[in-house]
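Design review, sub-item: ligand-bound model
Attendees: FS, YL, KQ
YL presented the inputs for the FE2/S2 (inorganic) cluster complex:
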Amino acid sequence: MADAGRETSQRPHLAVIGAGPAGLTAALTAARHGVRVTLVDAAPEAGGQFYRQPARELGARHPEALHHQWRTWERLREGLRGQEQAGSLRHLPEHHVWLVERRTDGFSVHALLGPEQERPAEVRADAVLLATGGYEKVLPFPGWTLPGVVTAGGAQAMLKGTLAVPGHTAVVAGTGPLLLPVATGLAAAGVRVAALVESADPGGFVRRSRALSAQPAKLAEAAEYAARLLRHRVRTLVHHTVVEAHGTGRLEAVTVAALDGDGRVRPGTGRRIACDTLAVGHGMVPHTDLAQGLGCRIDGVAVHVDDEQRTDVPGVWAAGEATGIGGATLSLAEGHIAGRSAAARLTGAVPDPRDWAGAARARAALRRFFAALDDVYAPPAHWAEQVGDDTVVCRCEEVTGGAIREAVAGLGAGDLRTVKLLTRAGMGWCQGRMCESGVAGVAGCPDTPARRLLARPVPLGVLARAGETDAPHGT
Amino acid sequence: MNPLELTRARPGPAFTITLDGREVEALPGQTVAAALWAAGVTSWRTTRGEGRPRGVFCGIGVCFDCLVTVNDRPNQRACLVALRPGDTVRTQEGTGHDG
Ligand SMILES: Cc1cc2nc3c(=O)[nH]c(=O)nc-3n(C[C@H](O)[C@H](O)[C@H](O)COP(=O)(O)OP(=O)(O)OC[C@H]3O[C@@H](n4cnc5c(N)ncnc54)[C@H](O)[C@@H]3O)c2cc1C
Ligand code: FES
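KQ shared the predicted structure:
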């Protein structure tokens, strides 16, 4: 079958990985400016996390009930259809990319098809744009492995994508702006939200009010969420944290407690809330595997980019939450800039930053805003003290807090890698994606992303066939 | 209100699948995880080490907590795999290869 990079067309070919707000905007922008685009995404539909759609077969006639900024999505969706019809953009859904390979004549994107992920496919392109978004971080606490405890974003994803809710009574807890849409979304979908438990200190907002008030749209959004919480009678506890999830076989209740000024649990403030669902999150982590595989520089936990959204590897752009967490609007702005820059450079022009001045202003302001938010929404400083010696920290390998502490205190492990090797924490199915921050915090090591050679688990047969021949498989 | 009413969903006719031999209703487009949640089931796997129950955690294919055996294939992520009429879903114990 023909490979996208090998068609007769002379137009340069850009592979965009990720069809969320960032990748979709980048793909449309590049396609409108003379580049042939292949948009590759693991999901069955475009939209990413923010514009996640109910499966088509569910026949939702009013999906916007679970969304905000629906108009923007409609514009993107129309754009996608238009560019597909014009033949300048090809969308490949259900393609799980496990490796992007640099070759002498461009790039090779290796993917596995469908949810079972066994059939391989390959896309060749002149340049790639990584818009892989992020996933949610959850720090460990006693009981967090009980069925009924889900990530806040996961509850949202199941709701938006499959119209399913996890139970009847939920507590939404942790820290960060994502908790608001999750609590209001679950409430609108008929789940009783017994409490929204935010560990941040509202005083922090006041101290940073300059950066925050510079974003009136964001403040209006927050006010709207506050009103919805009131309407659904959701009790909000700020400067509180979940200390334990209770149940045998499944979640039955959580204990929440107040925090003191240093971020320690205040003794004697614990209260038990009955619930069958705990939606919990402590912020987001950028997806950097593909960028790491290409050798791109990583700053902290995010892909490093310049003003044009270029990584330090020639021919590789990155946009959206892969380059730092900052919400859908920032992802749109970064996607636009990346698409303009890639289109210009691939068609041999020198990009003119005036072409994206508006997006650049929005990007600067939103980055400042989210930097301020990041300080406010930090997990409680002493969260690791709540992790008992028998609390599971690595979910896949069932490594406990005690085993990690023993590796540090008893066996002298001084960094995350050694802790992993000694305890197997982070070596299971998810390759540490769910426990990396937890293990680092309990061990007292800095939280640096591990190098994962492959972005997805790959069947051995596929690995053996890859690179065996230059002829593309699939697609 | 439930999510189907909220979004005015008109799914195609429900069909049956089995979970450990017991019949469960599913709607077209639902993933294994969604159908099991709708049936009030939150756990369909036990861990390799301690035999503890697990179900959905991340909901987006990253954590592998939701592994399940579908039509005799173990280690399928329930949050990603869509159901078809007549599918047989089995609770997965450990690696799914030992029984
Ligand atoms: C589970 C979850 C739910 C969220 N829900 C909300 C919400 O309701 N409201 C809100 O304001 N914010 C939400 N967020 C925050 C959200 O991440 C951002 O606001 C926004 O979607 C980021 O846009 P993006 O384009 O950078 O990435 P995303 O929207 O995350 O898009 C990234 C895309 O890349 C694809 N991808 C990643 N890796 C690969 C790969 N290896 N191969 C193929 N495709 C890949 C994914 O399938 C996805 O479609 C959620 C985050 C998560 C993790
Ligand atoms: S719930 Fe995490 S992979 Fe399915």
